Amino acid sequence: MKLPKLGPLGASFSDDIVLAPDASSPDPKTMRQPTAFGDDIPRGRRVAVRVRLTSNPDGKLVFDYGDSDPLTKGQPQLALSFADVDRATLAAVNTVLGVAGDDRGAIERFEVECDPDSWVGADASAEDDATVAFGMARVFDAALGAMANAWPSKVGAGSCSLGAIVRLTCGDEVAVETLEGGEGATPSREGADRWSGPVREPKRAEADWFEASESVRTGSGGLGARNGGAGIERRYTVSQEAIAFVAIDRLTNPPHGIDRAGPPKPAELWVESTAGARRIAAWTEHPLSAGETLVVRTAGGAGHGFPGWGVDWDPDSF
């Protein structure tokens, strides 16, 4: 696919991460555990990734992230290295071109500019693996959003670019899984269910102290002339006491549709027991008793294109 040319004003897009506050700390500007992503955190500091997309005289695309928020203070540090930003941007360009996310063929077609004093393109990445992964997902979303603003008829709708990272701990044993979300629809096709995403390959784990089952969240993709792909539901029932930690976003801010198409169903996080079901917070450790079930539902992808007269979706329901 040949990308259209940009006008002199270019295009821009921004996305943000919400850092959960620690009520015991007197410093509202310091980053603290736990780190949380998505608009479901009512309080806390928002840290933005901002990108401006232009063309240089040689015809290359220029992704300028220099206006992103400064580095945060405290531990863990929220920071992405230039290599992280470059890889996430390449994945976004490849998504638009319709090639594999790690294909290096497009690397000569764009440039990345960063301010090392911002959290996007800093001298070193955050040490926490999940923080880096979701930070890169936000950069991917911003780059894809800028290209969608520049060429809405060519670029696909928003995707659940990283479904979830689930960590279960029982004694000295740790099981880590990476789950898929739904892909956004494109101008030429519907989004894929259980999309592997641009940042992290899907991963499943096995242990004798939990049983897992999985299904596609049928109907969770956004409605449009071309519907978004579906996320998944994965259930973990523990036979022993365990601790669950789920890195997940898109809980209240699902991906956006394009050209009057609808958003998908957002992600959900539950624990089920004989006493009933309760919602739990993301990015926080939760003890599980024997027999309880952790339920992780990843978001779908957004729709693309006006779905047609007589078909309604209510944005206020998301």
Q: Can you give a write-up of this model?
A:
With 318 residues, the chain is an alpha+beta fold. It folds into two domains: 1-155, no CATH class; 156-318, no CATH class. It has two helices and 17 strands. The strands form five sheets. The protein has a five-stranded antiparallel beta sheet, with no helix packed on it. Strands 1-3-4-7 form a four-stranded mixed beta sheet, with helices on one face. It has a four-stranded antiparallel beta sheet with strand order 10-9-13-16. Strand 9 (164-170) and strand 10 form a beta hairpin. The mean pLDDT is 86.
Please report the distance between the alpha carbons of the first and last residues. Answer: 34 Å
As a percent range, the share of helical residues equals 10-25%
| Quaternary status | single chain
Overall number of domains: 2
Report the count of strand segments.
17
Radius of gyration: 20 Å
Mean pLDDT across residues: 86
Query: For the largest beta sheet, what order do the strands appear in spatially?
Result: 11-12-17-14-15
- Give, in order, the helices and strands: EEEEEEHEEHEEEEEEEEE
How many H/I helices? 2
Largest sheet: 5 strands, antiparallel
Shape descriptor reads: globular
Low-confidence stretches: none
Beta percentage is 25-35%
Alpha-beta classification:
alpha+beta
Helix-strand blueprint:
Layout: E1 11-19, E2 30-31, E3 45-55, E4 61-64, E5 73-74, E6 80-81, H1 82-97, E7 110-113, E8 120-122, H2 129-150, E9 164-170, E10 173-179, E11 210-216, E12 232-238, E13 242-248, E14 268-273, E15 276-279, E16 286-288, E17 293-297
Parallel strand pairs: 2-5, 4-7, 6-8
Antiparallel strand pairs: 1-3, 3-4, 9-10, 9-13, 11-12, 12-17, 13-16, 14-15, 14-17
Helix pairs in contact: 1-2
